[in-house]
Specification:
Distance between the termini: 49 Å
Shape: globular
Structural class: mainly alpha
Number of strands: 0
Helix content: over 70%
Number of helices: 15
Strand content: under 5%
Largest sheet: none
Radius of gyration: 28 Å
Length: 407
């Protein structure tokens, strides 16, 4: 009896539950649902960010333009003779009155304010995230990545601006706003070279990729590049944004440091804006700029070709069952792609109409081909990313049960 009591007292207790409920390993269907929710919420959050950005920026621009027109044009209305509404003539009047600076400053402030509010909203919609483990790059690694970024950017820029090589003059609207201005343009260029890289990398890389990378870096990079291209809203910038977006997303997934992508983005934007920036001081560098940038682009494409295996390695496939369907068949991604296509069609139609009015040449129809190519890229994105889906698991045949009778 005493031995029995002793055995009861010293018997091994039941193993405690060492894993808290919220940290229990997820079942495959849970991971699939989590992946679908992550891509859905991220797309909706980024869409909300850019809607807020556009509304606030456009509202402040419109308000500043109305006030400037009242101050600068209304008092001189009797001396103004316009046969028709001419945007260039109106802009010239605003320049002469010295109010263009305030319009452009309001526009830049509106973009900054819109981005700040939009980032807050996107972070709330996006939900929880898991930051990527940080890794530093050596100077040589960063230089090679910078060259590759220049290479894909140049290739995308050539494709998107193909009509210009046929002598077709196109405008996205901002060019007209800056036409004839000098030092007054600095707020817009400052935002282009510093503000846009900062805010766009926080949105399209950090906030987006921190949420998506646990479900497969390949899909996360592909979606980051595609959404980044769509937010630019026109085929002229679609291809360069897609190409650079993929490279920048791969850099962030590899390093976890958004500072690298901000620097690379700022380098691209500053290089692209350099001729216009120096022209404000009547400095013409077009020829030298074309030669230097051309060499950088060719060198970048050569480096990209040599490092193609390393780049491909970053696009790791997902290990989530049903990943492909979870990425592309959710409301957020569907809405973003549909609205993105509609925006490209609308903006390109305005560009085409404007260039036909100015140039009067059938070569303007090259823009239609680029519009169709951009739309086709968006529509085929699910098919182009099939290789990122997890490989099907082959069922292993069950071993026969041992037969103790020997029959």
């Amino acid at each position: 009896m005493e031995q029995t009591q002793f055995e009861v007292r010293t018997g091994a207790p039941e193993a405690p539950d060492l894993l808290p409920r919220e940290e229990e390993p997820q079942q495959p269907e849970d991971r699939t649902g989590g992946m679908k929710s992550a891509f859905n919420r991220t797309a909706l959050g980024l869409g909300a960010l850019y809607e807020i950005y556009q509304m606030i920026g456009s509202a402040l621009l419109a308000l500043a333009a109305v006030v400037a027109a009242i101050v600068a044009i209304v008092p001189r209305i009797d001396s103004i003779h316009l046969d028709r509404f001419d945007v260039s003539a109106v802009l010239s009047l605003l320049n002469e009155a010295g109010v263009m600076y305030w319009i452009l400053l309001a526009y830049a402030v509106g973009m900054v304010l819109g981005m700040v509010v939009g980032l807050i909203v996107m972070k709330l919609i996006r939900g929880k995230c898991e930051p990527i483990e940080k890794r530093s790059l050596s100077a040589s690694e960063f230089l090679l990545i910078a060259l590759m970024t220049f290479g894909v950017w140049g290739l995308g820029a050539v494709l998107g601006n193909l009509p210009a090589f046929f002598g077709v003059n196109e405008s996205l609207g901002l060019d007209q706003l800056l036409e004839g201005s000098t030092w007054e343009s600095w707020p817009v260029y400052l935002y282009t070279c510093i503000g846009a890289p900062l805010f766009e990398e926080l949105a399209c890389r950090k906030l987006l990729l921190d949420r998506l990378h646990p479900y497969g870096k390949g899909y996360a990079i592909a979606v980051s590049g595609l959404l980044f291209a769509l937010i630019h809203g026109n085929s002229a910038q679609f291809f360069l944004a897609l190409a650079t977006g993929l490279i920048l997303a791969a850099v962030y997934c590899r390093t976890g440091r958004v500072l690298y992508t901000i620097l690379l983005h700022a380098m691209i934007n500053t290089t692209a804006s350099l001729p216009e920036l120096l022209s404000l001081g009547n400095i013409d560098i077009d020829l030298g700029w074309n030669i230097v940038v051309g060499c950088l682009v060719v060198a970048g494409l050569v480096v990209l070709f040599l490092k193609r295996k390393d780049v491909k390695h970053v696009f790791a496939p997902s290990d989530v069952p049903g990943a492909h369907r979870a990425v592309w068949r959710n409301p957020g991604m569907l809405i973003f792609r549909i609205v993105g296509i509609a925006t490209i069609v609308f903006t390109d139609a305005l560009m085409l109409f404007s260039s036909l009015q100015v140039n009067g040449t059938p070569l303007c129809l090259v823009r239609l081909l680029l519009t169709a190519l951009a739309i086709l890229t968006v529509l085929l994105a699910p098919r182009l990313t099939r290789s990122l889906a997890p490989a099907p698991v082959e069922a292993t045949p069950a071993e026969p049960e041992p037969n103790p009778t020997g029959d």
